[in-house]
Amino acid sequence: MKNGELWTDNSGASIQAHGGCVIKYGKTWYWYGENKGVDNLPGKNQVPFVGISCYSSPNLRDWQFEGNVLEANKTDSGSPIHTSRVCERPKVIYNPKNKNFALWIHLDNEDYTFARAGVAVSGSPTGPFEFLAVHHANRTDCRDMTVFQDTDGRAYLVHSGDWNKTLYISQLNDDFTGFTGLFTKVLVDQEREAPALLHHNDLYYLVSSGCTGWKPNSMLYAVNTQLLCGARWKLIDNPCSGPGYRQTFGAQSACIFCAGGQPYLLLDHWDPKNLRQSGYSILPIHINGDYMEILWRDCFEGI
Ligand code: DGJ
Questions:
Q1: How far apart are CA 77 and CA 73, in angstroms?
Q2: Is 0.85 surpassed by the pTM of this model?
Q3: Nearest CA to ligand 1 atom 9
């Protein structure tokens, strides 16, 4: 798989799983993302909402399309997942208590002023997911997001809020479908989005991008020993190194996942004029103490 390019699934079709996440359940990897497999709306850097796709793989290299696990609503224009709406950055987490999967998404209207979090659930990793609720998390707007499960089993939604000025880490309830009310503000007024979180050797690492629409910018990472102590998040630097490191190799962070103890970053190489053509990269993350390094690699060969 050549990093930066649009990858194909086992049938030869382009993988439509943008802004997504990779999880492992049993022996299988699942990749969820935005299915942008239609033309851009005329003159816009936007596509109609098609659905949230799912791909499965035994090795992170050979991907089989499992269908859209959440389909756009095509009939009810008032639905938060109507095809005229924006539904981005899907993140899926397994809930062991309920033996089901929760899917969180950024829900918006065409001009990104609605800015809410949506949640759907399914008993199977390959869906279908039932749409449950729209959340106005912490009474702030909710845009780019990721979900994170800590070692104690507690789960969190990490999301851009305050009109993208500040990141929030919000604790999820036992069902992973709502909030406990416990939250912290991170990197206040630093205007970060595309968050992805990693816990490694007693330290939390939060990577994020700046807010420049589809245009790439510098990734930055921050560290903390305590997830919910907002003021203690310490912004370190750009972890990228290699050609194009200042603009995150022309990409933007989507999620972090671990395979065999090795953390990886999944990235999107957005093509705003033709979003369905946007490519992907998977790069290994190297950690040494509180130092994080992400080196460019031409290829990702799976595991
Ligand atoms: C950057 C976000 O990270 C993307 O998910 C998308 O919302 C674009 N902005 C839209 O411009």
A1: 8
A2: yes
A3: 213
Q: In the predicted model, what is the mean pLDDT of residues 275-302?
A: 96
Give 128 Cα–ligand 1 centroid separation in angstroms: 25
Domain-wise residue ranges, the chain: 18-295
DSSP assignment of 121-139:
EESSTT-PPEEEEEE-GGG
Question: E strands, 79-217, where?
Answer: 86-95, 100-108, 116-122, 130-135, 145-149, 155-161, 166-172, 179-186, 192-200, 203-210
pLDDT, tens only, 88-140:
999 999 999 999 999 999 999 999 999 999 999 999 999 999 999 999 988 89
pLDDT tens, 196-255?
999 999 999 999 999 999 999 999 999 999 999 988 999 999 999 999 999 999 999 999
Q: Ligand 1 pocket, 106 CB below 6 A?
A: no
Helix and strand numbers (H, E) in the chain are 0, 21
Token pair, residue 272, equals 């705003």
Answer whether 55's CB lies under 8 Å from 30's CB: yes
- pLDDT of res. 289: 84
Contact 277, 268 (CB under 8 A): no
From the CA of 211, give the closest atom in ligand 1: 1
* Tokens representing residue 129 in the block: 């997911």
Q: What is the spatial distance between Cα 179 and Cα 168, in angstroms, rounded to a whole number?
A: 12
Query: Which CATH number is 18-295 given?
Result: 2.115.10.20
pLDDT tens digits, 23-55: 999 999 999 999 999 999 999 999 999 999 999
Report the C-alpha gap between 240 and 246 in whole angstroms: 7
Distance CA 271, CA 225 (A): 36
Distance CA 56, CA 191 (A): 34
Q: Whose CA is nearest to atom 11 of ligand 1?
A: 213
3-class state of residue 18 by DSSP: strand
If DSSP codes are grouped into helix, strand and coil, which group holds residue 83? coil
